[in-house]
Amino acid sequence: MYAGFDDFEHLETSFVYDMPMHHNPNVSFTETYRCYPVIMLQGNERENINYGGKIILPPTALAKLASLNIQYPMLFELRNTSNQQHSHAGVLEFIAEEGRVYLPYWMMQTLSLTEGDFIEIKNATLPLGTFVKIQPQSPDFLDISDPKAVLENALRNFSTLTQGDIIQINYNKKIYEIMVLEVKPTDSPNNGISIVETDLEVDFAPPVGYVEKPQQPKQSMASKINIEEPIADTKKSSFPGVGQILKKKSAKSSSSIASSSSSTFNSKLEEESENGENDKNGHISNVPGPLNLPFGKLFFGYKVVPLGANKQVENESTSFKGEGKRLRPSKK
């Protein structure tokens, strides 16, 4: 009944409602190619390919994939047949030469491949990732002002992430290596997840070689602005210094001045105001005593005496003092 269908060599028969049904077993894509870095691809250089997670296959791979019943987006498992190291990737274009596949350079390093080595490529179905933990391989990654935004932009060039891979991203003309420490769900085949159209939680581990700085004690605001705090004086004296009286006498000690009463001090002031002495310029050197005015009487100040008025009065009174004499005696 099925003679003449050479493409279907192996058949599986199942019975549903007593009706035989036949399925095409050729639903997997498995090919072996020689691998080369994307920098050797002919045409214009595209850095997003070298710092991403997608490969470039030949056109014949597209024709074969189109005839198979595979899921989209197209995801592949890459395996080094010599050491069985593996990783996962998406596909970007089908423009490679026949028998060749072009990989990002970091992917060739992860799989320990060199130019021209054979690599086995097989289509894969990976679950959508929910969590990934990464570790930068250099403390320089901390110099980025917003690493979360940079990483989110860089992961747009990736379709899959595999635990154990060390991917590379390019930011401000500097290459940063990042290792994938953990992925979830953990039951994914070969520890790979798909990150296409999914909400992915990202956790950062401390970078390799990072040493946390010891915490310094908190400084007070006064020490930050270099303000010297006042030093408490243990010896306090109520009246430091030496006291002096109004008259020009020898200075007394502070203890004797403190012991003098206010009544004695006022009496001295009254006595000195009554017996005030003038200095060389005619100014009164002593301070007048307090005024004890009766109730209802106002005081508008002392009488103003011009400077040198007393001397003029004395000079006027003594200008023609004495007895007059004649040169000739008077005739009687």
Topology readout:
Blueprint: E1 12-16, E2 19-23, E3 30-37, H1 47-50, E4 54-56, H2 59-66, E5 75-79, E6 86-93, E7 100-103, H3 105-110, E8 118-124, E9 131-136, H4 147-154, E10 160-162, E11 166-171, E12 174-184, E13 192-194, E14 201-204, H5 221-224, H6 254-259, H7 262-274, H8 309-317
Report a brief summary of the structure.
By secondary structure, the protein is an alpha+beta fold. It has helices at 47-50, 59-66, 105-110, 147-154, 221-224, 254-259, 262-274, 309-317; strands at 12-16, 19-23, 30-37, 54-56, 75-79, 86-93, 100-103, 118-124, 131-136, 160-162, 166-171, 174-184, 192-194, 201-204.
Please characterize this protein's 3D structure.
The chain has helices spanning 47-50, 59-66, 105-110, 147-154, 221-224, 254-259, 262-274, 309-317, and strands at residues 12-16, 19-23, 30-37, 54-56, 75-79, 86-93, 100-103, 118-124, 131-136, 160-162, 166-171, 174-184, 192-194, 201-204. With 332 residues, it is of the alpha+beta class. It has a six-stranded mixed beta sheet with strand order 4-6-5-8-3-7.
